[in-house]
Write a structure and sequence with these properties.
By secondary structure, the chain is of the alpha+beta class. Helix content is 42%, strand content 7%. The strands form 3 sheets. It has a 4-stranded antiparallel sheet with strand order 1-3-4-5. Helix 2 packs antiparallel against helix 10, helix 3 crosses helix 10 and helix 6 packs across helix 14. It is globular and about 65 Å long. The relative contact order is 0.21.
Length: 397
């Protein structure tokens, strides 16, 4: 055995220490990720589609034929289950950065990016950040229900109230206004995944006044930003040992991204309909129950080797094909030197299997799975996110 000189060993050690300091830190220490008993998921595809199939079936059929949200209906048709555990496990494996429009996570110690580029590859929503939103603010008064709401500008209309208090009155609206209602429901409760009891923003009512504008609107940017905002909001809650939280935004995208970025997670959660699938949003190529336990996720992370496929970047054309696409850049993007170092290491094929990621804080976070005392947001329940295990239930709507 050839022994290295002491100064060489010290140089290697110093480089390793420097590298650790130059990389972003994990939100939680490896192996100490908290578990929660409930995630109140506002992304309710099955619930909304079933509601309008019973309420306004003909109007729903009109919206189904519009390609702008075809992936939503295809995802519903394929029946891919929602895995709150997969989503929560990744939220606890987040890397803390200074980036405003980009999220990074680690799985099996390997870094993975979830940016607008990955969101577009998964959902297929319009994600061009250079589209001007000014043109979508204009509307013409046509005397219909939504025009009257816009003229009032009080912003006090909710989908929940229309359903519970004005259900029969809605059926007497003009055809155009009923169809606009279905578009608003898909936009607000699925694409943006907001609570149906929240007021409908006037800006989205103005958009649906012209369906051509609905098809041009950058829904992907709006949905991705809302999801990132909700994830950021829940960081502090996780640190505070919460046992439940509300997740806004199209969180299905985060789950399907995890299934694509880590193929073995995909095999745990579901099944690909076409293994050679290339042209289209990846969300339409999955089916399955997605019933996964925390123990299965932890075990999978332990047995993954450097030879197993894990893709740090995903684009529409494939895995690792595009690292940074200019179409998704923002004017207010900021740099994080640590991410630049990280991306350079990924580019050079660095083996992260032995790297121990430092944490933002040295606090040990522990949660009791038996704690049922958490107070839930009554306006944010989801019948889809409930899983069969007794220790992980989302309240029934």
């Amino acid at each position: 055995m050839i022994l290295k000189p002491l100064h060489v060993e010290l140089t290697i050690l110093s480089r390793f220490v420097a590298m650790s300091e130059e990389l972003p830190k994990r939100l939680f220490k490896e192996g100490e990720e908290p578990r929660v008993t409930q995630i109140n998921n506002n992304c309710r595809i099955d619930y909304i589609i079933r509601k309008f199939q019973a309420w306004l079936p003909k109007e729903l059929d009109v919206v189904k034929k519009d390609p702008v949200f075809h992936q939503i209906f295809k995802l519903h048709e394929n029946g891919l289950g929602y895995s709150a555990r997969v989503i929560h496990s990744f939220l606890c494996r987040e890397l803390v950065t200074f980036l405003q429009h980009e999220l990074w996570f680690v799985f099996a110690r390997r870094p993975l990016r979830f940016s607008l580029q990955e969101f577009h590859a998964v959902t297929g929503f319009e994600c061009d950040t250079h589209i001007s939103l000014e043109e979508f603010e204009e509307w013409k008064y046509d005397g219909g229900f939504w025009s009257k709401v816009l003229r009032r500008k009080d912003g006090t209309i909710t989908l929940f109230n229309l359903w519970t208090k004005d259900k029969e009155a809605v059926k007497k609206w003009r055809n155009a206004d009923r169809i606009r209602l279905v578009y608003l429901a898909i936009i607000l409760c699925v694409v943006l995944a907001r609570d149906e009891k929240a007021n409908i923003p006037l800006k989205y009512i103005a958009v649906v006044m012209d369906l051509d504008r609905v098809r041009r609107y950058p829904w992907g940017v709006a949905a991705y930003d809302l999801l990132c905002k909700s994830i950021a909001k829940n960081r502090s809650q996780l640190k505070e040992k919460t046992t439940s939280y509300v997740l806004d935004g199209f969180s299905y995208a985060l789950q399907i991204w995890a299934m694509e970025a880590v193929p073995k997670i995909g095999k745990l959660c579901g099944k690909k309909l076409d293994k050679g699938f290339k042209d289209g949003p990846r969300c339409i190529n999955w089916m399955g129950a997605a019933k996964v336990s925390y123990e299965e996720i932890i075990r999978l992370e332990e047995i993954i080797t450097p030879k197993d496929d894990i893709y740090p970047y995903i684009s529409w054309t494939g895995n690792y094909d595009v690292v940074k696409a200019q179409a998704f850049r923002r004017d207010d993007d900021v740099e994080d030197d640590r991410i630049n170092v990280l991306m350079e290491m990924i580019k050079k094929g660095h083996d992260f299997s032995e790297h121990v990621w430092e944490t933002e804080e040295n606090e040990v976070i522990s949660l009791s799975l038996d704690d049922e005392s958490a107070v839930n947001d009554e306006a944010s329940v989801n019948v889809e996110a409930a899983e069969s295990d007794d220790d992980f239930q989302t309240p029934k709507g």
